[in-house]
Design a protein that fits this description.
mainly alpha, 0% strand, globular
């Protein structure tokens, strides 16, 4: 989807549909299978595997304790796939554009800027992990559960340092609040189709719940 406004709306609607009921989650999975690039939008296989394993374990514990473990698993998988699709479609600066379009050049700019900085941090964390793994490979070290804690501590320290540097840079440039920006969006016909179809998914979820 080219229009970030409709993509964000579609993501929220599909996530809500998947959360409301099992049939909504199944409809969300069908939407993902039929209307997205599917495998191109998935995260790294190892990350996907770890997340799936955690979801499966949580679902099994819930099922054994008398809960709705299977329903939980299907819902979480649907939400995960939609989130991965939405993340793969995003472009730099679009969250700022959407926020300013929705809430104005003062509050909207501040919220959008914070969101963009958060998304940038996710990309930097990914780079940090790749660099650490490359360094460990050069040293002949294996990436294991025991290396996660020091790795996580190193990533947190790097992010704190970057956050401090960003705050100093904004202060030096005189940033206080708000900003001037003119949001621009391009909406294709397929964007309307995807958004409308997501509303059908939500309707299915609501009707099946009642």
């Amino acid at each position: 989807m080219q229009d970030a406004r409709l993509r964000i709306l579609t993501t929220i609607v599909l996530s809500a549909g998947a959360f409301i009921s099992l049939y909504g989650a199944l409809a969300t999975l069908a939407w993902w299978l039929l209307l997205t690039p599917r495998w191109k939008a998935l995260p790294h296989p190892r990350i996907l595997l770890w997340v799936m394993v955690m979801i499966a374990i949580t679902s099994l514990v819930s099922e054994l304790s008398g809960g709705e473990g299977f329903s939980y698993m299907v819902r979480m998988i649907a939400i995960l796939l939609i989130a991965a699709w939405a993340y793969s479609q995003r472009q730099d600066g679009e969250l700022l554009d959407v926020s300013v379009w929705l809430m104005g050049k003062r509050i909207g700019f501040d919220i959008g800027l914070t969101a963009e900085m958060g998304m940038q941090s996710l990309g930097l964390i990914k780079q940090d992990i790749q660099q650490v793994r490359q360094a460990m490979a050069v040293k002949g070290m294996k990436f294991s559960v025991f290396s996660i804690l020091p790795l996580a501590a190193n990533i947190v320290m790097n992010q704190l340092r970057r956050t401090e540097e960003m705050a100093k840079m904004l202060t030096v440039r005189g940033y206080i609040r708000g900003g001037e920006i003119e949001p621009h969006f391009h909406t294709a016909r397929i964007d309307y189709l995807l958004a409308l179809s997501s509303l059908l998914v939500l309707t299915t979820a609501i009707l099946s719940y009642y």
